[in-house]
């Protein structure tokens, strides 16, 4: 019963918050111990905690949950605890328990700098093992050098800022993410899109012609190609290896956009023909936002990770070890440590990608039993992110419902399913990544239950 589970969620967060209040008393005390007033406050907080634990030990309750506020106007977020979340960009970014513990311990702003020593750069810090983590990231995607960055978009920007000059052309997919466009625009370049084939995939057969057209117009080769392995609109798989091979025939470096792959499935950058691999920590590596990675080969590492050469005209100051595109250092505090804490789990889960895809297809098989439902993405699925069409089913209900398109998200929410874009009943996306077989079956039954309620045919 959802009300009973709400009680458990409420009390669990109460316990966590009480522990944080106790921790704050300890933080404020002197190194040699607490004052009498601090001890009294600590014991009162301990008593409060015991009371909450007793409530938990009593078991579930049918009472309305009274979720605690963090501060005024900032309520509690418990969608992962209380629901099945199918939000397209959140599924693979759920934090591991280890990451949540790292956030608690390392949440202070510059906590990563506790043991920062010469040469005073993030990727050189050995305690905690941030330097080792950078080496592991490079190996993880089979590239030579890697850096952590504030999201995939900052990885795009670092590369375009280094390789793209004013009015240079950059080849992208016709399904490219908007941040790829912005990265090119910020560098002063212009995007040129590769057309799609009839299956909404990059048309490999038209690539050479497109490149030749660009060369004919610009009088020079494009300075970069940015290609998504799985695009964000359909999550269709694109033939990265063939695309990279054609680009290299024209000496065009290739940026592999792994926002939906790095961290959920095996990625071998060199085998795929990538010169740069960009990943999203908060989208696919069980990490807090903003986080991501940028990895490259030895051929481009000195360029993209170049150090500053500027010198102050009055002071003569130089900061030679600081990397220009990284603005010296990038991820700090809890964001980086949570990313590191999740990494052992992330490495293991990429080896179970086939299981995730099977679960995706298991759900889609049941979803398609509602007559009129369609899968717009390639099918059978090769990814857990999918675009579907319910124009002939739930959208017909929406036309007659007093809540219009919002009825579907309302109904799903009542069943503990969240993450669908409110009001969407035509073409919309969902992501089943990380759901157990039991949750996949529950999700399938939820959609079929709603369909039956509104007299839609279910096979």
From TrEMBL:
Transmembrane annotation, as ranges: none
Cofactor: pyridoxal 5'-phosphate
Family: Belongs to the SepCysS family.
Enzyme Commission number(s): 2.5.1.73
PANTHER family found in the cross-reference section: CYSTEINE DESULFURASE, O-PHOSPHO-L-SERYL-TRNA:CYS-TRNA SYNTHASE
Functional description taken from the UniProt entry: Converts O-phospho-L-seryl-tRNA(Cys) (Sep-tRNA(Cys)) to L-cysteinyl-tRNA(Cys) (Cys-tRNA(Cys)).
N6-(pyridoxal phosphate)lysine, modified sites: 283
Protein name: O-phospho-L-seryl-tRNA:Cys-tRNA synthase
Molecular function terms, GO-annotated: Sep-tRNA:Cys-tRNA synthase activity
Reaction catalysed by this enzyme: O-phospho-L-seryl-tRNA(Cys) + hydrogen sulfide + H(+) = L-cysteinyl-tRNA(Cys) + phosphate
InterPro entries xref list: PyrdxlP-dep_Trfase, PyrdxlP-dep_Trfase_major, PyrdxlP-dep_Trfase_small, Sep_Cys-tRNA_synth_arc, SepSecS/SepCysS
SUPFAM superfamilies found in the cross-reference section: PLP-dependent transferases
Origin superkingdom: Archaea
Biological processes annotated in GO: translation
Residues reported to bind pyridoxal 5'-phosphate: 152-153, 257, 280-282
Keywords, comma-separated and alphabetical: Protein biosynthesis, Pyridoxal phosphate, Transferase
Quaternary structure, from the entry: Homodimer. Interacts with SepRS.
HAMAP family: Sep_Cys_tRNA_synth
Organism from which the protein derives: Methanohalophilus halophilus
């Amino acid at each position: 019963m959802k009300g009973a589970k709400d009680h458990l969620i409420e009390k669990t967060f109460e316990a966590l918050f009480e522990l944080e209040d106790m921790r704050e008393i300890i933080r404020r005390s002197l190194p040699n111990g607490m004052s009498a007033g601090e001890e009294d406050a600590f014991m009162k907080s301990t008593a409060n905690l015991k009371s909450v634990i007793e409530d938990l030990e009593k078991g579930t309750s049918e009472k309305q949950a009274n979720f605690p506020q963090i501060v005024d106007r900032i309520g509690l977020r418990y969608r992962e605890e209380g629901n099945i979340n199918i939000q397209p960009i959140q599924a693979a970014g759920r934090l591991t328990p280890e990451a949540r513990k790292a956030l608690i311990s390392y949440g202070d702003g510059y906590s990563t700098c506790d043991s920062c020593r010469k040469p005073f750069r993030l990727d050189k810090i050995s305690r905690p093992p941030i330097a080792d983590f950078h080496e592991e990231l490079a190996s993880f995607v089979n590239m030579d050098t890697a850096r952590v960055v504030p999201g995939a978009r900052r990885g795009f920007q670092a590369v375009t800022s280094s390789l793209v000059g004013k009015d240079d052309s950059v080849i992208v997919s016709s399904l490219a993410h908007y941040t790829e466009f912005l990265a090119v625009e910020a560098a002063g370049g212009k995007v040129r899109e590769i057309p799609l084939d009839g299956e909404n995939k990059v048309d490999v057969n038209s690539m050479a012609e497109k490149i030749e057209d660009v060369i004919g117009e610009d009088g020079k080769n494009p300075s970069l190609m940015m290609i998504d392995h799985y695009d964000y609109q359909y999550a269709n798989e694109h033939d990265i290896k063939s695309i990279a091979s054609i680009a290299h025939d024209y000496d065009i470096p290739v940026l592999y956009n792994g926002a939906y792959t790095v961290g959920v499935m095996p990625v071998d950058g060199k085998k795929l023909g990538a010169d740069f691999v960009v990943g999203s920590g908060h989208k696919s590596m069980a990490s807090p936002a903003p986080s991501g990675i940028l990895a490259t080969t030895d051929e481009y590492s000195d360029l993209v990770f170049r150090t500053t050469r500027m010198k102050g005209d009055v002071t003569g100051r130089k900061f030679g070890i600081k990397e220009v595109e990284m603005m010296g250092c990038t991820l700090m505090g809890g964001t980086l440590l949570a990313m590191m804490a999740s990494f052992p789990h992330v490495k293991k889960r990429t080896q179970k990608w086939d299981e995730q895809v099977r679960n995706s297809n298991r759900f889609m098989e049941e979803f398609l039993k509602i007559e009129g439902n369609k899968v717009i993405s390639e099918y059978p699925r090769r990814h857990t992110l999918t675009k579907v069409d319910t124009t002939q089913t739930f959208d017909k209900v929406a036309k007659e419902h007093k809540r219009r398109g919002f009825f579907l998200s309302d109904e799903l929410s009542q069943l503990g399913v969240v993450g669908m874009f409110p009001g969407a009943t035509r073409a919309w996306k969902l992501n089943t990544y990380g759901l157990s077989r039991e949750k996949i079956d529950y999700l399938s039954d939820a959609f079929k239950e709603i369909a039956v309620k509104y007299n839609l045919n279910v096979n």
